[in-house]
Specification:
This protein is α/β, with parallel strands linked by helices and 480 residues long. The protein has two domains: 64-246 and 349-476, Phosphoglycerate mutase-like (Rossmann fold, 3-Layer(aba) Sandwich), CATH 3.40.50.1240; 248-338, no CATH class. Helix content is 42%, strand content 11%. It contains 15 helices and ten strands. Helix 4 (167-187) runs parallel beside helix 5, helix 6 (248-267) packs across helix 11 and helix 11 (340-364) crosses helix 12. The longest helix has 26 residues, at 2-27. The chain is globular, with a radius of gyration of 24 Å. GO terms for molecular function: phosphatase activity. Keywords: Glycoprotein, Golgi apparatus, Hydrolase, Membrane, Signal-anchor, Transmembrane, Transmembrane helix. This is 2-phosphoxylose phosphatase 1. It is a single-pass type II membrane protein. InterPro entries: His_Pase_clade-2, His_PPase_superfam, Histidine_acid_phosphatase.
Length: 480
């Protein structure tokens, strides 16, 4: 009997250890040694880290995990928080598309095998995933502005195409949409039950990943919406600058910023050594490897827990990944210090910020159109907006990042309207350039709308120096 009890105890311990091992394989990323005989990547296991708290020093693995934004437990957020006597008037949402397949491949290596069909028994999963697919299959006749009407409404390739939205990306935005639904519709009744098409403003670039991300968020926000009420406008520019895209000085700032990036790379001997090692592994010139932007592909391997590629010359490994990711972090730090990107950002973000305050001002007049605006965009859309607002410490937009502008009315003083700015659920209103000092003078938990209007119309150009106080003059000043 004693032997039998010991045997059962050992069996239980073995089962527990097996469970713990499998859990660690999913949640922790442990670098493995590089095989010297060019063994198959399938024999190399890699598991993901899951740091609970932010490390005391910059950690490239931790930063990469934040960038991946793997859906997990329900997110805590500060959207919709206001004193009881404030009424929510309108909401303006800027999103980066969700997780996608790389835009570039590492030369002479096999593409990562990621499945871009939507499957119920595969993680990450969302309870509305099957219903989303079913609803999208009924939208083939929907009316979208050209060329959006030629794009697929959800990803559906067994092997992802370049830049295609993944199941992770869909789930990220279904989750975003449901979160916003719980806050803005269920709690604040932003839209009536019989909402109309003109109460939504939907705009996206002409990429399938942005359209599909917008539709996933919209489905989470308005499940089983009426296709006849949905109209996505096409935005040709990633800056969402519409008819105000011509800006010579903005392009000059961008050229100087790109030159700064190039010089920083030249100074980083560790980065150059890493590119050289990787180039030998894949047997291409270092210049060709660098031009292929390997970090884009490596992030896909990292976010999807897929081994980095191997050849007969060895394997790309975690140490290579850490060096390149660390350089990215250093580049972002220097970018903030040099201010060239700020100049680009102010001129790049002004058109879309100007459109946003225009919608807010119309809402303050009692108009009921465009109460919920959604811009489905890219990292190169959100990053300039964050910088232009003065949110220089904000992290680079992760997959499925969201930046939200809320407009509120004080019921006790109906003529007064305020705004809140939230980034990935965090209230950053008092970190913005236009309102960082307001809370020192006022007990209100929000910022007066006129602060934002004055900033966009005039004050944001102060950061550029010179005499320009409007967009046209700032874009065409000769002294730059």
């Amino acid at each position: 009997m004693l032997f039998r009890n010991r045997f059962l105890l050992l069996l239980a311990l073995a089962a527990l250890l097996a469970f713990v091992s499998l859990s660690l394989q999913f949640f922790h990323l442990i670098p493995v040694s590089t095989p010297k005989n060019g063994m198959s990547s399938k024999s190399r296991k890699r598991i993901m880290p899951d740091p609970v708290t932010e490390p005391p020093v910059t950690d490239p693995v931790y930063e990469a995990l934040l960038y991946c934004n793997i859906p997990s437990v329900a997110e805590r957020s500060m959207e919709g928080h206001a004193p009881h006597h404030f009424k929510l008037v309108s909401v303006h949402v800027f999103i980066r598309h969700g997780d996608r397949y790389p835009l570039y491949v590492i030369p002479k290596t096999k593409r990562p095998e990621i499945d871009c069909t939507l499957v119920a028994n595969r993680k990450p999963y969302h309870p509305k995933l099957e219903a989303f697919v079913s609803h999208m299959s009924k939208g083939s006749g929907a009316s979208f502005e050209s060329p959006l009407n030629s794009l697929p409404l959800y990803p559906n390739h067994p092997l992802c195409e370049m830049g295609e939205l993944t199941q992770t990306g869909v789930v990220q935005h279904l989750q975003n949409g449901q979160l916003l639904r719980d806050i803005y519709l269920k709690k604040h009744k932003l839209l009536p039950n019989d909402w109309s098409a003109d109460q939504l403003y939907l705009e996206t670039t002409g990429k399938s990943r942005t359209l599909q991300s917008g539709l996933a968020l919209l489905y989470g926000f308005l499940p089983d919406f009426d296709w006849k009420k949905i109209y996505f406008r096409h935005q040709p520019s990633a800056l969402f600058c519409s008819g105000s895209c011509y800006c010579p000085v903005r392009n000059q700032y961008l050229e100087k910023e790109q030159r700064r990036q190039y010089l920083l790379r030249l100074k980083n001997s560790q980065l150059e050594k890493t590119y050289g090692e990787m180039a030998k592994i894949v047997d291409v010139p270092t210049k060709q490897l660098r031009a292929a932007n390997p970090i884009d592909s490596m992030l896909c391997h990292f976010c999807h827990n897929v081994s980095f590629p191997c050849t007969r010359n060895g394997c790309v490994d975690m140490e290579h990944f850490k060096v390149i990711k660390t350089h990215q972090i250093e580049d972002e730090r220097e970018r903030r210090e040099k201010k060239l990107y700020l100049g680009y950002s102010v001129l790049g973000a002004h058109p879309i910020l100007n459109q946003t305050i225009g919608r807010m001002q119309r809402a303050t007049e009692g108009r009921k159109q465009e109460l919920f605006a959604l811009y489905s965009a890219h990292d190169v859309t959100l990053s300039p907006v964050l910088s232009a607002l003065g949110l220089s410490e904000a992290r680079f937009p992760r997959f499925a990042a969201r930046l939200i502008f809320e407009l509120w009315q004080d019921r006790e003083k109906p003529s007064e309207h305020s705004v809140r700015i939230l980034y990935n659920g965090v209230d950053v209103t008092f970190h913005t350039s236009f309102c960082q000092d307001h809370h020192k003078r006022s007990p209100k938990p929000m910022c007066p709308l006129e602060n934002l209007v004055r900033f966009v119309k005039r004050d944001m150009f102060v950061a550029l120096g010179g005499s320009g106080t409007n967009y046209y003059d700032a874009c065409h000043r000769e002294e730059f």
